[in-house]
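To fix ideas, we reproduce below a protein record of this kind.
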Amino acid sequence: MKLISVRLVLPVLLLLSLPTQQGWAQTPPGQAAAKSDDVYKKIWKFAEWYKNDQNRVVQSVLFSGRFQVDYAAINADQGDHSEWNIRRMRLGAKSKLFRTLTLHGEVEFNPQEADPFYVRITDMYLEWAKSEKLELTVGKQGASFTMDGSTSSKDLLTIDRSNLANNMWFPQEYFPGVAASGEVSGWQYHSAVYSAGEMNREFGEFNGSVFTLFSIGRDVADPLGAKEALLRANYVYQNPHPSNTFTRQLHHMVSVNFKFEDDNWGARTDVSAAAGYLGQSDLWGLMVMPFYNITPRFQIVARETYLKSSDPNGVRLATYESTVVSGRGDRFQEIYLGANYYFYGHKLKLQSGAQWGDMDDRANDGGTYNGFSWVTGLRVSW
């Protein structure tokens, strides 16, 4: 790692860990953790702009957003690359209205670039929820399918989503649409229709087609005696259209995933397959991600991913690897090993992960990749 990265990362780590270190010096570990949590609670309290449960019109106005910064280094047979990157910066607000409505809006910015500084609107929706059984959402919102695709970037256990999600989910993530979701007797469901037309920074051009999403999950934590256990199946149908640039060129997509967590360990799995159109090959892949909590704050995570396309040039590389190799291949596998330190849960954490990746390219036209990458990132969210 370059000297400049050490000089920049070390002061951040010392600053963030200061409340914890002071607490450890003066009190037992359990009390130290509680003291540091109290400090963070006071800081995050500033995000609560307004709260009054007695107000019949506006019950709360909360600041929402995230700031994520990475240092990435790649060493591959095809070349090397390193960079500092503000991965995500989003700012907005979430309001509770009339006790049943939630109005949420966020905008993404890129402070590394003068143009465009304003990147896009991410969330801009109105949600109605009378009970847990039914929630209706209208507006620009996240489309949740595949394991990593249904996990917010705030809550990821790895530094970034797997390459399975990068290929078989829709990485734009936010689409204008209408969705219904809820939970009934341990069954969780989500059904939605979204616009897939030509992408712009707001709500799209609505000049393409639509995609539909249906997801159903079963909570099996009690039968397994676990803290959390959810088995979920997702199906996406997209009407093929050349102007569908909000999405990947996938006609049908099926994903079955399982999320399990006990006291100190857990695992997440995903098996997915997709049928492509307009030159995109059919795909299938699997992902297994076990993790172990060494302490309440320190966690280690491993992940193995495998992807295969029926035809050449059907598989893409992920964000940082694609800076070295821009072409596509037909078989990809990766092994990831990482560690997370949670200063204040997922709201303030430091993540670091190293991975080996290998891409085969039958067409031999610029998609071959074999190398190691290492990414460390600070994640802050409200």
About this structure: The chain has two domains: 1-48, 131-381. The chain has four helices and 17 strands.
